[in-house]
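Entry: DNA-binding transcriptional regulator, MarR family
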Amino acid sequence: MSTGASSGDAMDVILAQWARERPDLDCSPMGVIGRISQLQREVFLAQRSTFAKHGLDAPSFDVLAALRRAGEPYQLTPTALMRTALVTSGAITQRLDRLEEKGLITRGRSEADGRAVVVTLTEAGRSALDAALPDHLDTEHALLAGLSDTDREQLAELLRRFLVALGRVPSAEQVGG
């Protein structure tokens, strides 16, 4: 894969067309947003294929990964999972229903607060996640193979700044506060 600055992509063609047709407009944001959209599709397709090999999908993987990252006893409240996944309560309920049907999680009352519901990663859920994670990382490494380590670090920093500027910062719960 060529990494030279002279190699163009489909967005370069689109931007040139807009420059010709509407030279009065600054279409440069399309160069960033359009490429992010294209990358989003590439990442989605690659991850979908990887997760399918393990009987999972991206939403299921996200829930299992959040529980696994929580550490023993691998429990979180549905609200904490909802905040981690950035989805509605209805969406997280659907995800939990599917995972519970597969035996990958359980839902029960918190030992600390009998009124609170906690979601717990089962041994089967942990095994499924631990089996999928190396393949998931291999997929991500393959997606980034055309970039040097320095390029990856720079891209990660630029994307971090972009997300922070949009207000996407972790809540106190997510950082352990």
